[in-house]
Amino acid sequence: MTWPGIWGWTSSLLAFIKTQLVILLLRVLSAGPIPRHIAFEMDGNRRFARLTGRHAVEGHSDGFHTLKQILEICLRLDIRCVTVYAFAIENFNRPPDEVDALMKLAEERLVEIAQNGALLSQYGVRLNVLGHRELLPIHVQAAIDKAEGMTRQNNRAILNVCAPYASRHEMTLAVQSVVQQALDKENFDSSLITEQTIEDNLMTSLGGSPPLDIFIRTSGVKRLSGFLQWQCCENTQIHMVDTYWPEFGLWDFVPILLDYQRKVWARSSS
């Protein structure tokens, strides 16, 4: 066998071994308690692009590939719901060319992952796009409607893509809905306006999401920045990791899952 042939055979063998180790690791993890709902604040795409000498949109494209990889890990572990922060309302203040590129990327990628045979279809995932959708260009709104329609019958898991989103906007809409529901009663009853009824009217709740178990923000920034501020309750485990989102992978994720399992076991034994 020639050296190129030996090298190719060795590379294939190493890839096979790596795949089998990942499968084994996921099986071990799935034997413990598994979170129902994980949120990712996918931060650091632009900084990663600058670090590697490329345009911001290339960092966002890399971030989409990372999302697919992490989402597949979550689905293999039978995590019921994944929520990601894709675009903040405030992001419209970014340079117009970057915003336009992000809108084009969103239009292409949402349909790509939802189409028949793609990731969401394979795992039976329903797509919910949460946020102030009226702010988006018409062609992006049409792509969202198409992607959501492709997955409407899926019921194994949920992917919430928050875009364009802000917690204040979500909470304001929830309060308005609850107040309107109370006003619609024959006799106005202010007791209907409670923390629980507001929570029931949040975008995540209306989409069928369970309570948030784990919140992860990448890139080393240590704040929520308007993402799921209501949902991050006392039982949510919050992790701020230094890795930029395009570089976030299994070996960043595993310690977080193990920490979750350790704390669940500790609570159950106390």
Low-confidence stretches: none
Return the string of H and E elements. Answer: HEHHEHHEHEHHHEEH
| Helix-and-strand structural type | alpha/beta
> What would you call the shape?
globular
User: How helix-rich are the residues, as a percent range?
Assistant: 40-55%
Cα distance spanning the termini: 61 Å
Task: Output the radius of gyration.
Answer: 20 Å
Number of helices: 10
What's the β-strand tally? 6
Largest sheet: 6 strands, parallel
Strand order of the largest sheet: 3-4-2-1-5-6
Query: What fraction of residues sit in β-strands?
Result: 5-15%
**Mean pLDDT rating:** 91
Please supply descriptive tags for the structure shown above.
270 residues, alpha/beta, single chain, globular, 10 helices, six-stranded parallel sheet
Could you walk me through the main structural features you see in this protein, from its secondary elements to its overall organization?
The protein is an alpha/beta fold and 270 residues long. The radius of gyration is 20 Å and the shape is globular. The mean pLDDT is 91. Strands 3-4-2-1-5-6 form a six-stranded parallel beta sheet. The protein has ten helices and six strands.
